[in-house]
């Protein structure tokens, strides 16, 4: 299994790398936040397995950064187990899991909720994280690795009214799962944390805005709308690179005493209702 080794080594000087020799699996890694994180992990010296159902995008990304790609539907436990096993077969260990795979939901009244669609979303967004944490923890304990597990939640898991009922449920459930897993695994040297982005203009978010607003919107328009409605940072919206940098932080020894934590990337949206800048004028 020699795919991509030369590319991996040459990405940047070793003095700038923070994750040299670390082995990571990223679910939902073919595009958006997952792809940006896969790129940044490899740039920092990690060996990455990109796991996704988007085979064409995932394969192209893996080839470009010197990673491996594997087809993985996180709602299927056996797929997740296979992705973890690929990392073990490749490098003999697993140091990092970034459990990032997820889908968006279609908004509807709770009284009209399509339960089959809701169950499908929960099987991916919530149970996919259960599968991922379960098999990553097994691998880390078997290899005696002091590993790092990161899950992607959302501002919709913290506040109501930001997304559909099933999506909000799934993202809030991830936070609860992260905390219980952190309690169990922390004593065995495995840190478990969450990242909760708000309004990152991924393909999924842009598509969601188009559906909710009933008109075509560009990523630039979504950024403008999110920035105006939900940020104290001069109208700025978070980028996929912002989230990737947070994942690198949580997956390195820079965060060695952080576990059971939800790192919110929202420009204040979930924690403040306005600016006090007028006081200081």
Compact overview of the structure:
GO terms for molecular function: oxidoreductase activity. The protein has two domains: 5-198 and 239-268, Rossmann fold, CATH 3.40.50.720; 201-237, no CATH class.
Describe the structure.
The protein is built from ten helices and seven strands. It is an alpha/beta fold and 281 residues long. It has a seven-stranded parallel sheet, sandwiched between helices. It starts with a helix and ends in a 16-residue tail after the last strand.
Mean pLDDT, all residues: 86
CATH topology of the largest domain: Rossmann fold
Number of domains: 2
In the CATH classification, which architecture of the largest domain applies? 3-Layer(aba) Sandwich
Please count the helical segments.
10
Helix content: 40-55%
Low-confidence stretches: 8-15, 276-281
> How many strands in all?
7
The fraction of residues in strands falls at 5-15%
Rg computed from alpha carbons, rounded to a whole number of angstroms:
19 Å
Main β-sheet, spatial strand arrangement: 3-2-1-4-5-6-7
InterPro entries: NAD(P)-bd_dom_sf, SDR_fam
Protein name: TAPETUM1, TAPETUM 1
GO molecular function, one term: oxidoreductase activity
Keywords: Oxidoreductase
